[in-house]
Amino acid sequence: MKVHPVLEAVTQRIRERSGPTRSAYLSRIEAAAARDRGADRMGCANVAHAFAGIPANDKFRVVAERAPNIAIVNAYNDMLSAHAPYGSYPQVIKDEARKQGASAQVASGVPAMCDGVTQGTAGMELSLFSRDTIAMATAVGLSHDVFDAALMLGICDKIVPGLLIGALHFGHLPTVFVPGGPMPSGLSNTEKAKVREKAAQGLVGRAELLEAEEKAYHTQGTCTFYGTANSNQMLMEAMGLHVPGAAFIQPQDSLREELTREAVRTALGILQSRRYAPIGRIVDERCIVNAMAALLATGGSTNHLIHWVAVARSAGIVIDWDDFDRLSSVVPLLARVYPNGTADVNAFQHAGGPGYVIRELLDAGLMHEDVLTVREGGLREYTRIPARSEVDAGLAWNDIGASGDDTILRPAHAPFSPTGGLKLLKGNLGRSVIKVSAVPEDRHVIEAPARIFDSQEALLAAFKAGELERDLICVVRWQGPQANGMPELHKLTPPLAVLQGKGFRVALVTDGRMSGASGKVPAAIHVTPEAAAGGPLALLRDGDLVRLDAPAGTLEALVDASEWSRRQPAAMTDAQREQNAHGVGRELFAGMRRNAKAAEEGACTWL
């Protein structure tokens, strides 16, 4: 299938824009790949230190027999339901490596926080910056430089982007990402959302709300909505960095361990076949565009408009929101998964999952097929689903066939929408994005007076006081990377949904983030430049008429141009800055706040 001309044009635009930085990046990883093995080029004391802690047989194998040594970078903790299964993975990986004549070492553990725990609290202000912290922790582990390949163990929101950024700074290593899968379905996401809205109105108490939440989040595995964590897994499949079809097999499934063992065999297979497929080569311009297309086709998390800019930059590739917007004009919406529908990711997997989406996009010319992946068979391998082999106890991959449920997955020739789920908004309030795939069509245009808030707590207080019972656009500023680390404002979804449910025309405008689980209320988010950097949200005043027009791609303050030009921007107060600077470790992230790039530059703290 010939590649769609818009997909090709966007790819070429990225390639031209990225020429110097990509070329320099490739030169660096090729130089690193050309060196002797770590155990051969290092001094004897270095080598002794590197392998002092491993069993004697493994030591002999890696040093004397020059066998491959795999780095394990593990995001395990049992605070996160999605990462709790990783506690047992290193022993499985080491066992399989030994069976294959290789060795494996845990190179590092990386921090992994749960946004579900920190939503609406001060801890959420560490969330975005935890991505770069994870990247640095990955680099620290790999900096021992005695590895021939790497396995990345992580799933959730900032963890996969952080691992990917870190891995790309060691782009000479063949690298496979190892998922753990979603938890079995509990209380449906739709029912959970209803209880949250009732709680916001005071119609149910804490006991009822806690009971509903515990029925939704009830065991090991990722949350079952299609938020950032599960969008990560879709993108890893689209980029060819997983064992094919591994994303949404549940932790409790017996297939899970065999897929983990296959990840070891896959990494070693790259080395044994002498195929030059290090991660820095796999993640090229076409690979990044494939990830963007998969995100759009599934209505995935808005967080990736920040994360994948940072990921691309780690490989010397420069993308921006115009690229997402252009692709969104031609990539159809093929999936309806909560919050874009009622199905959860388990139902999505049962209907065909990532393999179905990738096949449909490839066949429509909306993904590049001529890309490297961690598998020799290329991206077509990712259009099949893993199962137990009928011949032995190993793995086999089966064709997916037609959608198992056309209310969840549809073919490219009959999509839910002819365009993707994201739109770029531009105007005198800056640049921002909106996730339209979850928003009712009659809410794609909102024009109403602004009510300005300096924190999400202030908005919640106004809602509880009954001050928001009208058409309005809630503007929450001082939420960007430089102001306070750009927290998600997902706690605002239930009250705004209540107002919308009462018939009021409401929207949110903010320089902060919304979760990948953001709902049906129109939200112009990631507004850049942020207010704390002198952005135009700092010029808005209560009562200003604001128009959010998703079809037209505009976000405008309908204020006379001469008056607008005369206005002086508001500034954060010393008290606000002081509040953002202390508590739950925020002091340690002051340098990141100072150095953070704008949202459209990936909010990177290391450039």
Describe the structure.
The chain is α/β, with parallel strands linked by helices and 607 residues long. The protein has 24 helices and 14 strands. Strands 7-8-12-11-10-9-13-14 form an eight-stranded mixed beta sheet. Strands 2-1-3-4 form a four-stranded parallel beta sheet, with helices on both faces. Helix 5 packs across helix 12 and helix 9 crosses helix 21. The two termini are 38 Å apart. The mean pLDDT is 95.
The gist of it:
By secondary structure, this protein is of the alpha/beta class. Helix content is 39%, strand content 13%.
Layout of strands and helices, then pairs:
Layout: H1 5-33, H2 38-41, H3 44-51, H4 56-63, E1 69-74, H5 89-99, E2 103-109, H6 115-118, H7 127-142, E3 149-153, H8 159-168, E4 175-178, H9 189-200, H10 206-216, H11 228-238, H12 255-272, H13 279-282, H14 285-297, H15 304-314, H16 321-328, H17 345-351, H18 353-363, E5 384-388, E6 395-399, E7 422-427, E8 430-435, E9 445-453, H19 456-464, E10 472-476, H20 481-484, H21 493-501, E11 506-510, E12 523-528, E13 545-549, E14 554-557, H22 561-566, H23 574-581, H24 590-595
Helix pairs in contact: 5-12, 7-8, 8-15, 9-10, 9-21, 11-14
Domain Dihydroxy-acid/6-phosphogluconate dehydratase N-terminal: 68-381
Domain Dihydroxy-acid/6-phosphogluconate dehydratase C-terminal: 408-603
Pfam family, one: ILV_EDD_C
